[in-house]
Amino acid sequence: MTTVRLPLFPLNTVLFPGLVLPLNVFEERYRAMMRELLKTPEDEPRQFAVVAIRDGHEVAPSAPGLPDPTAVPERGPAAGFGADPLHAFHKVGCIADAATIRERPDGTFEVLATGTTRVRLLSVDASGPFLTAELEQLEEDPGEEAGPLAEGVLRAFRQYQKRLAGARERSLTSDAELPDEPSVVSYLVAAAMMLDTPTRQRLLQAPDTASRLRDELKLLRTETAIIRSLPSLPASELTRAPTSLN
């Protein structure tokens, strides 16, 4: 078992390998994390782990509020995540490699990172200025028939895109832009579909690529059928990852 200890950045979203994650970092605990990462030499990866929040708040309250206006806001690296932060997070996350960490004049940071490797959360340490975690790196097992499944998922994904874009508009992603490597396909589709966090998390922690693709094929067929029955569709941009508030 290969383990690694990294800074931990909990978010209300799921990061997949190969996907880009822009961050606007303003809380002190995460600003401290970025300052520490900037100490890493430029020729070495500046890595942290991203996990989706199961129970807690991405941004800790900074002032008293409802229901108790006299309550003192929590402080520290584990604020908003309860007495044992390990139980506040989903157990499978993704290592992020920060290509850009830019400090603004006001001390906040603009960060652009890319997901690299899936990891399993083993323990969380809240003794420092920011959370750190011991993580087990997870290999990507292709499973059985990943290649044919990826082809089927791509066909279904194109139909899904066309339905979302509308009959009079071109597809949001041209054929030339879509990959054909099964694991890459599985992560791209998982990130691009309009799914809730628990469903995205289920796809991230699938035991192998083929299982993830089978799940996605069912989801795509179901979602496309639902979209087909709707009288109108909201404008959607599937290729842009959401920017975290922190």
UniProtKB/TrEMBL annotation:
Concerning InterPro entries, the annotation shows: Lon_prtase_N (IPR003111), Lon_prtase_N_sf (IPR046336), PUA-like_sf (IPR015947)
The name of this protein is Lon N-terminal domain-containing protein
The record's listing under SUPFAM superfamilies reads: PUA domain-like
Gene3D superfamilies (UniProt xref) = 1.20.58.1480, LON domain-like (2.30.130.40)
> Which residues belong to any copy of the Lon N-terminal domain?
6-224
Kindly give the PROSITE patterns that the UniProt entry links to this protein: LON_N
**Could you name the domain of life of the organism this protein comes from?**
Bacteria
